[in-house]
Specification:
By secondary structure, the chain is an all-alpha fold. It has 8 helices and no strands.
């Protein structure tokens, strides 16, 4: 959400203007307080007085807020103690999923996509080595459990 507010701010303020930071803070706090409708109304009024060639950012922000109004209940999420980190979550999804699966011409089945996604998550988290040790131990148990249960190998 902040990304969109910043784009709107640069439609209204010159680059690096300190007033833009205050503008974003005011509107972000209003969104967090659950006043999304009010923010849309305010931005629409500001957009109406903005030159057409500078309106892309603010128009995109208004469009996003309007299209997602029913989902932007930050006040309820905060009251329930839920984290608000959609930008972080979207970034993780983009990193783990879209960067790999949105390749032109790529075709993925559910099982293959899920396996690749799990490996990408393990690598991204730095847990691949630990997981691989665990996986090999479980694989060894599955494959050799019957052979060695009585202390000898049936294949030897």
């Amino acid at each position: 959400m902040l990304e969109r507010l910043w784009a709107a701010a640069w439609s209204l303020h010159p680059p690096a203007a300190p007033a833009a930071e205050d503008w974003v803070a005011v509107h972000a706090l209003a969104l967090l307080a659950g006043h999304t409708g009010h923010v849309i109304t305010t931005l629409s009024g500001q957009a109406a007085t903005t030159a057409a060639h500078r309106r892309d950012g603010i128009d995109a922000c208004i469009r996003y807020l309007t299209n997602n109004l029913e989902y932007l209940r930050y006040d309820q999420a905060l009251e329930a103690g839920w984290p608000i980190a959609t930008g972080v979550i979207e970034g993780a999804c983009r990193h783990l999923i879209a960067d790999r699966f949105d390749l032109a011409g790529a075709r993925w089945g559910l099982a293959g996509a899920e396996a690749v996604l799990k490996l990408r998550a393990l690598i991204a988290n730095g847990d691949l080595d630990e997981y691989w040790r665990f996986h090999r131990a479980r694989q060894h148990e599955r494959v050799h459990q019957n052979d060695y249960q009585d202390g000898y190998s049936l294949t030897a």
